[in-house]
Amino acid sequence: MKGSRFSKRLEAIPPSKLKVDFALTKKEGVISLSIGEPDFETPFEIEQAGIASIQNGYTFYSDGAGLPQLRKSISKYLDRHYGLSYNPSDEILVTVGASEAIDIALRTLLNEGDEVLLPVPSYISYAPLIELAGGKVVEVPLHEDKAFRLQPQDLENAITPLTKLLILNYPHNPTGAIMEPQDLVAIAQIAVKHDLLVITDEIYADLTYGKKPCSIASFPGMKERTLYISGFSKAFAMTGWRLGYVCGPTDILQRLKKIHNFTLLAAPTISQFAAVDAMEHEEEETLKMRDAYNARRLFLIETFKSMGLSCFTPEGAFYVFPNIAGRGLSSDAFVSQLFSEEKLLVIPGTAFGEKGEGFIRISYAYSLDILKEAMKRLAHFLKAHPKVS
Amino acid sequence: MGKEKTIQLLELLEKDATLSVEALAERLDVKPQEVLTAIDDLKDDGVILATQAVINWDKENEDKTNALIEVKVSPQKGIGFDKIAHEISKFPEVSAVYLMSGGYDFAVMLERKSVKEISRFVFEKLATLPSISSTSTHFILRKYKDHQVVMDDTPEDKRINRGL
């Protein structure tokens, strides 16, 4: 063997900055608000549709691009909810989770050294996947005082002749921020002006509270340069079914399918049958879950106010991102002391990049009962660690 | 508000009467003011009668139970089903009265009563009404779902933290 046993590219990627021992969360008396996954089980009828497909013998590979009826359902769903128009025959690919879609999109689009604009803090997987695909991560800062919405000026500042791609993820993990049409129009203009490609990961779009979600793919000149990625995990509580999709212009989709056909062949057939039922018949279930998340969101925001914890008001996903700066504790120290003193586990903002320093991420994919007890503990902790003025 | 939206509004409220006017308006895709007006009208028209909480009394470990009493009646001249039903409804112990098709005439529900209270009600109050020909009392052993709510304990959290 010549050289290293392992891929240099992989070895260059630092291990996750998330230094939390998750085994601790199962210990007696510990409350964890750390999981970024719905606490609801998959709605009953969707489960039944999956079971029925097994019982009816649909246990074979599906079309590489996904079951035709599911692609039709996705097409109608996106039109109905977001005014997006994608042809089921050649503009939609069903993937193993939105995660696969992100990975193959990056591998399809990037060449060695291409710069990818990544708004930070960000979901943990983008940067490693960009690097694995040979790209270079260029961070674009998001600011709390701008509601963590990507600012046109920050975007312009980060663009170089090597810039190829922009990644958007609104509603946003970890902050819960959203982008409204007036915010997106400016970003779209810059993308067109600099001929950038855009990957928009809108996995949380159905979990938007009080405002209609809006996609950058719907703006003029954007469809031909945008890959729209979403999935069933969050809105339909189907994380374990591993099902997502990517939509975009035919020339890119053809190439995505090429990788998909070599690696995954097809997304799980059983999950796809369940997903058809989800999109065609179970929207009411997603609305019920959204109402529950919203009640929790409002509870947390009110409670933070009453305990003097500053927090930007999130309008999507199921995360809050309170500002814990000024208490003499780094994010990491805050999280580890909160755990040792109160047995309450949250995620330090730095897990989502250096830009997350001074923040913690709290997931409200937990029942109100659990959140209420957790907030008692947080209030107690904040009293013991007041703001240093 | 049209018929279809009104039905949707009622269905939403039946499931969760604590939904705010804004949340309802968003779900129905109408203005909050329209929701307010519709709710007022529905109250005036006696469609929305009351708002209650769904309670899992089993959790309170009371020594009480619920009963469903099948009642057969023999209506007499000038005393129809409605009159008998109203009479039964007047007893404060009774929580629901339904006219039934099939083997008996009325289903009468008693909730959160001791076995003694239930038997006294049947023998001393119900059975002595002149129009009632027979009763058959069933005790409800456990409620699994009521008013569309599953009366489960909090299910176990089956998630594995992947640090996402």
Judging from the principal axes of the Cα atoms, what is the shape of chain A?
Answer: globular
Mean pLDDT over the full residue set of chain A: 95
Count of helices of chain B? 5
- Tally of discrete structural domains of chain A: 2
Would you give the CATH topology of the largest domain in chain B?
Alpha-Beta Plaits
- Which homologous superfamily in CATH is the superfamily of the largest domain in chain A? Type I PLP-dependent aspartate aminotransferase-like (Major domain)
Largest sheet of chain B: 4 strands, antiparallel
Low-confidence runs of at least 5 consecutive residues of chain B: none
Topology of helices and strands:
The complex is a heterodimer of chains A (389) and B (164).
Chain A lengths: L7 H4 L19 E2 L11 H12 L12 H15 L9 E4 L1 H13 L5 E6 L5 H7 L3 E6 L10 H7 L4 E6 L12 H13 L3 E5 L24 E6 L12 E4 L2 H14 L5 H13 L1 H24 L12 E2 L10 H12 L1 E2 L1 E2 L11 E4 L4 H17 L5
Parallel strand pairs in A: 1-10, 3-4, 3-5, 5-6, 6-7
Antiparallel strand pairs in A: 2-8, 7-8, 9-12, 11-12
Helix pairs in contact in A: 2-9, 3-9, 4-5, 4-8
Chain B lengths: L2 H13 L5 H8 L3 H13 L20 E9 L7 H10 L3 E6 L6 E8 L1 H12 L5 E9 L4 E2 L2 E2 L14
Antiparallel strand pairs in B: 1-3, 1-4, 2-3, 5-6
Helix pairs in contact in B: 2-3
Kindly list the characteristics that best describe this protein.
heterodimer, A: 389 residues, alpha/beta, Aspartate Aminotransferase, domain 1, Aspartate Aminotransferase, domain 2, 2 domains, seven-stranded mixed sheet, three-stranded antiparallel sheet, globular, B: 164 residues, alpha+beta, Arc Repressor Mutant, subunit A, Alpha-Beta Plaits, four-stranded antiparallel sheet, two-stranded antiparallel ribbon, 6 strands, 34% helix
Explained architecture:
By secondary structure, chain A is of the alpha/beta class. Chain A has 2 domains: 8-42 and 284-382, Aspartate Aminotransferase, domain 1 (Alpha-Beta Complex); 46-282, Aspartate Aminotransferase, domain 2. Chain A is 39% helix and 13% strand. Chain A is globular, with a radius of gyration of 21 Å. The N and C termini of chain A lie far apart (60 Å). The mean pLDDT of chain A is 95. Chain B is α+β, with helices and mostly antiparallel strands. Chain B is built from 5 helices and 6 strands, in the order αααβαββαβββ. A 4-stranded antiparallel β-sheet of chain B has the order 2-3-1-4. Chain B has a two-stranded antiparallel sheet with strand order 5-6. Classes of the chains: A alpha/beta (389), B alpha+beta (164).
